[in-house]
TrEMBL record:
<dbReference type="InterPro" id="IPR001433">
    <property type="entry name" value="OxRdtase_FAD/NAD-bd"/>
</dbReference>
<dbReference type="GO" id="GO:0019825">
    <property type="term" value="F:oxygen binding"/>
</dbReference>
<feature type="site" description="Influences the redox potential of the prosthetic heme and FAD groups">
    <location>
        <position position="398"/>
    </location>
</feature>
<dbReference type="GO" id="GO:0005344">
    <property type="term" value="F:oxygen carrier activity"/>
</dbReference>
<dbReference type="GO" id="GO:0046210">
    <property type="term" value="P:nitric oxide catabolic process"/>
</dbReference>
<feature type="domain" description="Globin">
    <location>
        <begin position="7"/>
        <end position="144"/>
    </location>
</feature>
<keyword id="KW-0285">Flavoprotein</keyword>
<dbReference type="GO" id="GO:0071949">
    <property type="term" value="F:FAD binding"/>
</dbReference>
<dbReference type="InterPro" id="IPR000971">
    <property type="entry name" value="Globin"/>
</dbReference>
<dbReference type="InterPro" id="IPR017938">
    <property type="entry name" value="Riboflavin_synthase-like_b-brl"/>
</dbReference>
<feature type="binding site">
    <location>
        <begin position="212"/>
        <end position="215"/>
    </location>
    <ligand>
        <name>FAD</name>
    </ligand>
</feature>
<comment type="function">
    <text>Is involved in NO detoxification in an aerobic process, termed nitric oxide dioxygenase (NOD) reaction that utilizes O(2) and NAD(P)H to convert NO to nitrate, which protects the bacterium from various noxious nitrogen compounds. Therefore, plays a central role in the inducible response to nitrosative stress.</text>
</comment>
<keyword id="KW-0216">Detoxification</keyword>
<dbReference type="InterPro" id="IPR001709">
    <property type="entry name" value="Flavoprot_Pyr_Nucl_cyt_Rdtase"/>
</dbReference>
<comment type="similarity">
    <text>Belongs to the globin family. Two-domain flavohemoproteins subfamily.</text>
</comment>
<keyword id="KW-0349">Heme</keyword>
<feature type="site" description="Influences the redox potential of the prosthetic heme and FAD groups">
    <location>
        <position position="90"/>
    </location>
</feature>
Length: 408
């Protein structure tokens, strides 16, 4: 990004910035309408977008926040470059291409006109057309670097590559692991602990393919990739998870699954030698397991505190593996929290994670903290760490699905 404005004239900048209050008020309505219009005009794009996130409203809200930020900082786009890179990682994993950007721009402008009506003057639409072109060029440039980097890595690939399920392991009542090895037997690229892959589910009788991103739950360099998938049940007018149920019910050992190369910027800093605190709720343990397995393999002297929260042992995946690691590695301590324990369950705390208990298991705030799980768990974890006076630079987390602010 050579300059802050990339050649936009001052009048365009001022017009775009003047729309910030409007976007703050109407942004989600605009982006909801955008997706409706785009899917009507380009139904083939349903092969790329997660339609469940559309129904839940998560994706329109995330896009509205991104558009709002782009307008607010249109005269200093470097400010939002970290967010651009985070989104670009997901785009690269989904194989978003430069030719998709004009389609998005065309339909976003149509949605702005449709929602704002007469308030969307020709002057505003022209300014936003110019601004969108600049923003799109930034994304395309950043994503090109990512595609080039992936392609240049040993064994790396762009687009989707067929993998065979070599092992399927039931981890709990709701989570099953799938071990994946490349069909072409070419080298398997290394990945960083915390990264994810995109699975392309080509389901019979479904009009479109479905793309879903799943964290890798193993250490790199093992000769396989492993994803551990929670079966999503129908809830609150939302149908059951199309892809998770397909994987659980129809994908078996020997099945072929196309996947994209590993990506994502929620990664373990292995140069940090301070204590490592890994906190997870539910299926959020998948990237935490990768970080745990990676640390005992590559940094066996590093102290690790592993905290996992679940409803009960029935839905607690990989508990035996964590017990094994803890027993064999004196630098690792692990704790289990069950909010609805069953008779015979072994756990360290019942109910929910709280400050008083957290103080008893975390000896210092000068550590690296990573956490992942349901949004309620994430918000609680963040605010508890802030009460422990943990610096923001030491707090790392990932939200499954579209980005959302958990700090409020």
């Amino acid at each position: 990004m050579a300059t802050t404005t990339l050649g936009l004239d001052q009048e365009t900048i001022e017009i775009v910035k003047s729309t910030v209050p409007v976007l703050e008020k109407h942004g989600t309505n605009i982006t909801k309408r955008f997706y409706q219009i785009m899917f009507e005009n380009y139904p083939e794009l349903k092969n790329i977008f997660n339609l469940t996130n559309q129904r839940k409203g998560d994706q329109p809200k995330a896009l509205a926040n991104a558009v709002y930020a782009a307008a607010k900082y249109i005269d200093n786009l470097e400010t939002i470059l970290p967010v651009v890179k985070q989104i670009a990682q997901k785009h690269r994993s989904l194989n978003i291409k430069p030719e998709h950007y004009p389609i998005v721009g065309e339909n976003l402008l149509l949605a702005i006109k449709d929602v704002l009506g007469d308030a969307a003057t020709d002057e505003i639409i022209t300014a936003w057309e110019k601004a969108y072109g600049v923003i799109a060029d930034v994304f395309i440039s950043v994503e090109k670097e990512m595609y080039d980097e992936v392609k240049a890595s040993p064994g790396g690939w762009v687009d989707f590559r067929d993998f065979k399920v070599t092992k399927k392991v039931v981890e709990s009542d709701v989570i099953t692991s799938f071990y994946l090895e490349p069909v072409d037997t070419n080298p398997l690229p290394l990945f960083k602990a915390g990264q994810y892959i995109t699975v392309k589910a080509e389901i019979e009788d479904q009009p479109f393919n479905h793309l879903r991103q799943y964290s890798l739950s193993c250490a790199s360099g093992e000769g396989y990739y492993r994803i551990s998938v929670k079966r999503e049940q129908a809830k609150d007018e939302l149908p059951e998870g199309v892809v998770s149920n397909y994987l659980h019910n129809h994908v078996e050992e020997g099945s072929i699954i196309p996947i994209s190369a590993p990506g994502g910027d929620f990664i373990l800093d292995q140069d940090d030698s301070r204590p490592l605190v890994l906190m997870s709720g539910g299926v959020g343990l998948t990237p935490m397991m990768s970080m745990l397995e990676t640390t005992i393999k590559d940094n066996p002297e590093r102290k690790v505190i592993f905290i996992h929260a679940a409803q009960s042992s029935n839905v607690h995946a990989m508990k035996d593996r964590v017990k094994e690691i803890t027993a064999n590695n004196p630098q690792v301590s692990s704790y289990t929290i069950y909010d609805d324990p069953k008779d015979g369950d072994e756990y360290d705390k019942s109910g929910y994670i709280d400050l008083e208990w957290l103080r008893t298991v975390i000896p210092t705030s000068d550590a690296a903290f990573y956490f992942c799980g349901p949004k309620g768990f994430m918000r609680a974890s963040y605010h508890l760490l802030k009460q422990l006076e943990v610096q923001d630079t030491n707090i790392h987390y990932e939200i499954f699905g579209p980005a959302e602010d958990i700090t409020n």
